[in-house]
TrEMBL record, chains A, B:
SMART domains per UniProt: HTH_LACI
Boundaries of every HTH cro/C1-type domain copy: 12-46
Protein name (Swiss-Prot/TrEMBL): LacI family transcriptional regulator
InterPro entries per record: Cro/C1-type_HTH (IPR001387), HTH_LacI (IPR000843), Lambda_DNA-bd_dom_sf (IPR010982), Peripla_BP/Lac1_sug-bd_dom (IPR001761), Peripla_BP_I (IPR028082)
Lineage top rank: taxon: Bacteria
Keyword DNA-binding: yes
Species this protein is from: Paenibacillus durus
Length: 349, 349
DNA sequence: TTGTAAGCGTTATCAC
DNA sequence: GTGATAACGCTTACAA
């Protein structure tokens, strides 16, 4: 058999029409799946020609004509964070099934980069936008949403911005977790976090943590440690303070997210403090390595995949014309208890 | 001040032209940065109008006209793998600077999904493609490259496919690492990997490992353990075999990648085997948690960010018209020694 | 069941 | 310096 000679140029709808002996309209009907208005014979010829010419309709042209790009922009504050990857995966599974593609951006928590990406995705005419926001571009986001581009925020909400949001049910998760820590008999619990203000998920976690402790009359209501990663030494200073203050007490440290977890574990190790012998440990975000650090880390497993899945579903609903009021979807997390938060009684026995 | 009234529809180049009192051509010149053929006065009016109308040129229209989309497709075999994320970041940093955007896909190592994505990105008229391939779609990739779409493969090469590739210099990395293991005095080294055949990076790692051992007359030339994750129990069986066979010897386990690392560490822990007291450990891919597992894991840190960076640079060179012969770029890895591979002498002393 | 023709928002060519 | 006009590859009334 001889090789079918390769078409010199990318085939267009006109080429296929010509090859099949029909008009472009008919090909277009075929492409849109409108088979019932095409005769069987024609259909066969079209299929044949499409295959022979290796025809792939241009999404660009279609997008231009229909004023939609069949793509969704995704902007992450930190793509290295496994949280982001998992969300991405969930989003993709929905996206692909519906014939959309994802344009992925990473802002490194830089509002300036975020602004540029928003602008670029706007130019790209994305049909929707899923954002893990830096929370410092209210105006740009507001403009977009006024331009009728559906937006879903994940993890973090922005007050005053009328868009759908999807995240973890932090109140519920922290209520459960904090209760568990109390049950385990911890006398002091240090809550470590990057700057809390403006980041709704951190606010929720810290607030519920304090509420539960306050209700129990627990002394750690003031053990909130905020560090700004860019301020040299601040983190170490705070950790040292907590360690010194709680000397001799049955204590643990809680990390607001996975980045803080790693910072803490490294710092504890450097100080020669063992988990859980010298200090208990827990934090938000489960990971593949949480089970293998020491005797395992107790974590709050956020429903990351589900967050991505739901966010994309919501975007597509909006694109499909849903004009209902904006909603917040709070998905349930899972408390996974491991060796890093042993019961005080067990220790005593 | 009263709000500037929001344009009822997205502004087009025609709207801007009208507002500025010039032709579309002039606006287009402005957009392409051809300032020197525009008078200063006109330029000012254009800038003004663009701002007022919040005009964003449609990349779709531009793409259609120029037959390029200014986007690069990225297909990952496993986006959850930190390797992918880091590559993504490197690629993005280049991409963004040049005004391109990335369409990100994840195949979960499924050749069928890969095929669909290739087809979709083709339809999207991506200007180039960076692929971490499943290595089972030779034909589709060949078609693409024949269609003159630049492709760069990362990590894995596919024999017979004439495209650029970027990856780790596995020979050099494994030469160094294996030599180090020998220096540390390990009597047996188990090399654990998913199926090696067809995956060039695994082939290179295993081959060099064996070569170095053979040259040293070391008994572990046969300690290559291949497991197929989908075969229930195979992995555990192989691990048990190695453990039993090497009882009493100074031994270690080497993981071909980060997935295998986690599998092994979990399995060792479950068996109550300590690292490094009962068995030494090392593996390809450094991670944020490698320093905190036990007394730290010895790893080979692949230049992941650089791989992404280089791959994207290469794609853009190709797009810019480079027609040179296809090349392979082997970037240097870094051996990071930690507590999991102690010297035998140190132990004896 | 099929076709004609207009138009989506740009850029490229050519002319002034 | 500036502009008219014709594409680019598709979809969509509207006809037939």
């Amino acid at each position: 058999m001889n090789q079918p000679s390769r078409p010199p140029q990318k085939a267009t709808i006109a080429d296929v029409a010509k090859a099949a002996g029909v008009s472009k309209t008919t090909i277009s009907r075929y492409l849109s799946g409108d088979y019932k208005s095409i005769s069987e014979a024609t259909l066969q010829r079209i299929k044949q020609s499409v295959k022979e010419l290796r025809y792939r309709p241009s999404r660009l042209a279609r997008g231009l004509r229909q004023d939609r790009s069949y793509s969704i922009g995704m902007i992450f504050a930190d793509i290295s964070n496994p949280f982001s990857t998992s969300v991405l995966k969930g989003a993709e599974d929905v996206c692909t099934k519906q014939g959309y593609s994802m344009i992925v951006c990473n802002t490194d928590n830089d509002p300036e980069k975020e602004k540029n990406y928003i602008s670029m995705l706007h130019a790209q005419r994305v049909d929707g936008l899923i954002i893990h926001p830096t929370c410092q571009n209210l105006e740009n986001l507001r403009e977009l949403s006024e331009d009728q581009i559906p937006i879903v925020l994940i993890d973090r909400r922005i007050p005053g911005l009328k868009v759908d949001t999807v995240g973890t049910d932090n109140d519920k998760a922290m209520t459960e977790a904090t209760g568990y820590f109390l049950d385990q008999g911890f006398e002091r619990i240090g809550f470590f976090s990057q700057p809390i203000q403006h980041v709704s998920s951190r606010i929720e976690r810290a607030r519920t943590f304090v509420q539960i402790l306050a209700a129990a009359g627990h002394p750690s209501v003031d053990d909130i440690y905020e560090y700004e990663p860019r301020i040299q030494g601040q983190f170490d200073e705070q950790l040292d303070r907590f360690i010194a203050e709680t000397q001799g007490q049955y204590r643990m440290i809680f990390a607001v997210n996975v980045v803080t977890q790693l910072k803490l574990i490294n710092a504890l190790q450097k100080r020669g403090l063992r988990i859980p012998e010298d200090v208990g440990f827990a934090g938000v975000d489960d990971s593949e390595w949480a089970p293998v650090v020491g005797s395992g880390l107790t974590t709050i497993a956020q429903p990351t995949y589900e967050i991505g899945y739901k966010a994309m579903e919501r975007i597509l609903e909006r694109i499909a014309g849903d004009n209902g009021p904006q909603q917040h979807f709070a998905l349930s997390a899972n408390l996974i208890t491991r060796g890093s938060t042993p019961s005080r009684n067990a220790k005593i026995l």
